[in-house]
Design a protein that fits this description.
Blueprint (H helix, E strand, L loop, with lengths): L1 H14 L28 E5 L18 E4 L11 H9 L8 E6 L1 H9 L8 E4 L10 H8 L8 H15 L4 H12 L3 H12 L10 E6 L14 E3 L6 H4 L1 H11 L19
Parallel strand pairs: 1-2, 1-3, 3-4, 4-5, 5-6
Helix pairs in contact: 2-3, 5-6, 5-7
Length: about 270
């Protein structure tokens, strides 16, 4: 009886190709076993928009082949530092797989702070500041003379709608996108994010940050930026205004994308 059970078990193992030495050459009369492989995943890129923006800011950016995820903003707590806020934002990132960060304006500052606690493959900031010293003087003055606190978040939104076309002109279609993003912003976010910026304490930019900046950025002037990748004529809104032009530049700094079939996959901005 025991011999019969063993024989049946051995036959079943042989039928399934699970036998000792089955990995040997088939020419020896043995059955090879196929080794299962885990399909490669495309490189994930987290996109972090600016203070008055959301995922629509990246609507003209072409990162086809990458697994892009827009990192949606949390509402900052009252008097929350940028370092602490970035730490909370970092909790939304999947660290079990390689990833890179692309941040614009305020989103770039968050990307820099996240890179201090996590290990992204690349950190690319656009129209942003890599440390406190790259901010215009007015932001540092606001730390000690916080006049922005006199304006409720709703009024800050209306002021942004007026100021943007004056300082960062764009086409009508792009202005419409900007206005829609501003209107959808939580007023609390608008005011509390200013506190994060003016109280930013990072004195020196971490190594390895790739900083892309336009020469016509009136919001964060390029003259304060150290060693940028210069875009001639680029404004603060150039990620939207000149997205097709910036796409190959950003891609050139990112790791190569991969998919399960070894070919690029759709890389449109998605959700976490």
């Amino acid at each position: 009886m025991i011999w019969t059970v063993k024989a049946l078990f051995a036959f079943a193992m042989f039928t399934l190709g699970i036998v000792p030495g089955a990995h040997a050459a088939a020419g020896n009369g043995e059955v090879p076993v196929e080794t299962a492989t885990v399909p490669a995943q495309p490189h994930r890129v987290y996109l972090i928009p600016g203070q008055g923006a959301d995922g629509r800011l990246f609507s003209r950016l072409d990162l086809q082949g990458y697994d892009t995820v827009v990192l949606e903003f949390l509402v900052p707590e009252k008097k929350e530092t940028l370092q602490h806020y970035a730490l909370r934002m970092a909790g939304r990132i999947d660290t079990t797989r390689p990833f890179s960060l692309v941040g614009v304006s305020f989103g770039g500052m968050i990307a820099v702070e996240i890179s201090r606690v996590l290990e992204p493959e690349r950190v690319i900031i656009v129209s942003s500041a890599a440390c406190r010293d790259e901010l215009p003087v007015r932001y540092r003055v606001m730390k000690y003379l916080p006049l922005y606190r006199l304006f409720p978040g709703g009024l800050l939104k209306r002021l942004a709608l007026v100021a943007q076309p004056l300082f960062e002109p764009a086409s009508k279609a792009q202005r419409d996108i900007f206005r829609a993003m501003i209107r959808d912003k939580d007023p609390r976010f608008m005011q509390r994010s200013i506190y994060c910026i003016v109280h930013w304490s990072l004195e020196r930019a971490p190594g390895g940050v790739i900083h892309i900046h336009g020469t016509k950025d009136h919001t964060l002037p390029i003259r304060r930026v150290s060693d940028p990748v210069v875009v001639e004529g680029g404004s603060h809104m150039m990620i939207l205004v000149r997205g097709p032009e910036l796409s190959p530049l950003i891609r050139s700094f990112l790791p190569q994308p991969f998919s399960s079939a070894g070919a690029p996959v759709d890389g449109g901005p998605g959700e976490p």
